[in-house]
Amino acid sequence: MLIGLISDTHGLLRPEVHAALAGVELILHAGDVGGAEILDELALIAPVLAVYGNTDAPWDGSLVPALDLTLGGLRVHVSHGHEVGKVTPANLAKAYDADVIVYGHTHIQKVSRVGGRLVVNPGAAGPRRFDLEPSVARLTIADGTSEVQVVPLVPATG
User: Fold this and answer.
1) Fewer CB within 10 A of the end CB, N or C, for the chain?
2) What is the pLDDT of residues 114-136, one digit of tens each?
3) Hey, is 19 helix, strand or coil?
């Protein structure tokens, strides 16, 4: 199963997201979406499930505080991350009992293993902040294992 991970779009969906997430079966958005139009455009790529972040309002019920899913036999938790206080992979792993934990908020791409569990922040896909490169991630779940690849959102050159 191939899943697209995205976070912190803050109302901007870069055109490069379409190529970066091409072929995914599902997109999980880890909050700070910035408007329903972001989810509508992502839905052109694949079905989307999204949580709200600290800058979102759950405007129409399509955003929830957290998602707890079973995908490809693994338990997957998605939340923005700000709700745990200091946002670290260890704190998230302590708060959520899942095989894969997806979060956002910090805008920093991070892939960690905590006690054999995958904790991933795909980075911020929206407006560039904190001198960080925009990115998304591709999560592969197969045979009870999980792997993730962070994909930088690099504008096409012509």
Assistant:
1) C
2) 999 999 999 999 988 778 899 99
3) helix
